[in-house]
Sequence to fold (890 residues):
Amino acid sequence: MAGLMPLRAIGVASFLSRFPSYDGRGVIIGIMDTGLDAGLIGLQETSMGTAKLLDLRDFSREGLIELTPIAPSPNGVVDVGGVTVSGFGRLARLAPPPYYGGLFREQALGGMPAADVNGNGWGRDLLPVVVGRASDGWVVMTDTNGDGSLVDESPIRDYLVARETFSYRSGSQESGPITIAVNTSERDGFPQVIFYFDNDGHGSHVAGIAAGHRMFGVPGFDGVAPGAYLLGLKISNNSRGGTSVTGGILQAMNYAAVFAERRGLPLVLNLSFGTGAEIEGTASIDSLVNDFILKHPHILLVASAGNDGPGVSTVSQPATADYALSVCGLFPGVFLQTSDSGMVATPDVLGWWSSRGGEVAKPDVCAPGVAFSNVPPWRTGAEVSAGTSMASPQVAGAAALLVSALSQENRVVRAVDLKLSLSSTAAPVPSETAIDAGRGVPNVFRAYQWLQAAHQVGLYDIRSLPDGGNTSQASGAYRRNGFQGDADTIQRFVVTSVGGQPAAMLLLQSDVPWLRTPPSIDFSGTPVTVELTYDVNLVTQPGLYVGTVWARSASDTLAGALFGLTNTVIVPIPLEERYETLGSLRPGEIQRYFFNVKNGTAGMHVELELLGRAGSASLYVFEPNGQPYRGNNHIDIGPDTPHRLSLDIPANDLVAGVYELVVTSSRASSAAYRVGVEAPPIKVVRSGPNAAALVNTTDLEVKTRIHGRLVGSVRRDSIHGTGSGTSALSGTIPGWAGEIVIDLEVPGPLWSQLTDLGLSLVDTSGNLLHAGWIKYARGRMRIPVDVSWLGTPFEIEVLPGFAHMMPPQEWSGELGLAFMLDSPREIRLAGADTFTTLDVGPRDSVEIQIGSLPPDLRLPAGFSPLFEIFVDPTTGATTTAYIRGDAPVD
Fold:
């Protein structure tokens, strides 16, 4: 009633009030995610009273139980991995020998409280599991109440066979915090057992949005398609930081397709999951998703666009796949309303975090990206979640409503028809371009009317050719560094029919004056090259220009645009002298600035100042490949912060190319601001053992004040692996460490083959200290050090997840590991105690020596000291640089 499950934006409530039986019944929605908690009230039944969860299947192998043969004693006691459990006769009465046993290890399940599966406050329990084969298949028994006996336990079978679940509990608890299902299989007569669960909460939340019914036991508290079935497909391994594993996404898609086909039920897949794309549209997972959709033309795959916005060229893979329906996120106005606003409607705005396209003509549509939905009991308090992960199941649920409607009308609908019905009838998001919000916000009833009209449409493959400054290899034309000369006025696209019924004649229309197109093209099904022309005289001022040529069938113009040829041109500002400007933003508005940074630039200094006392604003920084700056990529400024803040990118991190800066206002108020950007005049480079050179990049003498600190120790190693096997780096966490910083870089061609790259920090006993993942080929992870880790031997495991199930291949990368001091130590520079002053002549350089290390500080073996050097010129921006030292010197 409060609207915190915001279904009005896409017209769900009005559609179901008109067609109450078209509520998703008879349709399966496959949720590829972190798992589903089968104990949640809102996931028990469809609107028809039938079981909602058809199957729960794990493709992450997080819950794999390593089994070995066991032999019970005559009195019914058995040792399972060092844990003794009695009452084995309960299993013996069901299943003859042989028997197998293993341990479910809490310590391998990620962080608390999810790792505490029995709710006893301790996350390192070893829970015995025994397995035998009964007349109806493999059965599993485990000590759920911790009393050391199986006498009072029930046998659990595969969820698909018996729909049985259990939970571990402690003391007098009736149930534990996590509901667990069992997957059993067999290889060469030996059982395989995987426990299925949601130890993140993300998948359960997503499932509630897509198809929850009577969530929390409240009548009418439903997701989009309360009548739909759910298929829980766990692809996320939380013990590896929430990453997918090699082939997991592909296996989940194929399993779902076979499952639905065998039951004669239509299927919609939702994938609220993704990683950053180095070059959008070129990843292996994109090709796999496209091939899957071509092979299964009646299965629509809906994917979240990602949360790396508001920078351009940030759509996650596989939402970058051509034939997937990628969804961006709106920030619903209901979440902005306060007690003062009463019943005044606050409009939805595009979420500042929602990823944008560029190299690809994505996203496709937008939906509310914030919702109140069900979560596992241990996750109570996190029922409201935000991101494109929440927008994607809205659209997947909408697709299920449409499929349900047509199925009840004895019609079969193809994925391409579903996708076009939702996109071609969408309402544009005001002031947003095609790479920000796609075609806009879909409406279920308008999409239903479109399908009722039985338009004949085809499926098209769009590829831009490498003309002029276009760097895209996918569905969009993308010039991040403007036009390359006067001759860069032509952009060609190749359009190929790959399915359906392509139109014989396509009418073309541009939506901006600087993009010119032929009025039409003849299309006979063979590849056709469309040549567009740019009027470069209309694209001269710095900024972002987006234009699309829309193609419609000449014989069926009411079908709307079948596809678009999207062109993105960025005209950057050369970062050669200080840039400063004033601006103002309406609530939720953004303003972009682009700067071309050359090789050898000393760094980038960015300032944001809020003018006046009202409102708040944020500034985001994006690297030339589109990824958020790997350091601190944004600053927030408002009434409770200083009204002027700065962000520095040191030369160590700077990448030549076009950086994007985005200033945003809050969703609730306007803001006036000043932004300043400049490159410092002095660059600091390592010049020898414990020495650095100050290089003047200008034609003027620069007077400087220099300050240095010892901030930690660092080492850099090459890492190598084969297939999805781990590559490990070991050592001991020093007693003075306050933070661990890991920089990981892998080659771009390797990254394009991956769906994930996980990093795990474990101790030598196998206890998981920290797990996370790297989102781009060059990534950084910061890990606060718990005091209990100090002096602990550790390993850093690098865990690649490949898109394909293929023969293992060798791979390599570079890993930088730094231990950072809680309190940096002052060091001497050029003979001075703390500060020194130096004059550096035009285009000249001056060398400085770095003093000795503090005698009480011992560095780990193989590590070098890491120095932070500040150079404060009398004119121009301050330089910050990190210099690796050598052996300590006096």
About this structure: The first strand starts at residue 28 and ends at 33. The two ends are 71 Å apart (CA to CA).
